[in-house]
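Entry type: protein chain
Record version: 2
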Amino acid sequence: MKHEPVHPAPSDADQRAAVPVVVCYPPETIPPLDSDLIAAARAGMVKVDEVVVSPREAATFEVSAGGLFRIVSVEGPQVGDLNLFHAHDLSERFWSGKTRALHGTHLSTGDRMWSTLPYLRPLATVTDDTLDWYGYDTDGGGVHDVIGTRCDPYTQHLLTCMDYHYCCHSNLTRAVARHTGRPEREVEPLVHDVMNVFMCTGFTLDTHQYFMKASPVRPGDHIEFLAEVDLLGALSACPGGDCGDEHSSDTATCHPLLVEIYESPVMESWEPAPASAYRWPTRPV
């Protein structure tokens, strides 16, 4: 339950609340991708690899800079939790908070996935989204959010006093450990807040609490990305299935997800964006 106010509103309460909104980080000055180049790349792309992500498990995949990859629904409605890393430096990884601040709560075609400080550059850009028709529904829900974290065993234990080992955090940790050959406890801090692929979420209109509802995704739907740097991806097929009921469950109906990796000759000369040019002053300000 949310706290009920105990202090009376002041006489100018309506005036205080009626001030105009100011967008904190307007992204219009960020140069967009060359749409003609991306169209040409997509027209000539050839699939070079694919990875199946089993239900309630995670898998890793690699994509070279300038390559494209798709996450595809193949058997039934299924949500996926996506982590992205710079393939050569796992300390540079997806930053959902800044991505949300720049592009909004849910991502679709043209939106970028930005990396952590001190790098702050695009890791990947959405180039196609078959669910772009969904928009925002009457509940305020949208698809592909960057507002949720990822289901994790710590919160699960906090709320239920039960241990559940197939939360997306756990799945992603095991997948990154397998990929790097490092212990799970060592790589766990690298696992980060996700893009919730295909997940339908929002904030309740009354209490503004994070909610989920059954995903509109169906077999054949996909979301496609350009890898703007050499990428290591990790994707968990969430134990909540379509997340229409619960998100950490051995009873929810779950399906695999497919990651398809493409290359295009048009992108052979692709140059990743440099890391942020900001530099600390030589002495304290």
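Comment: The mean pLDDT is 96.
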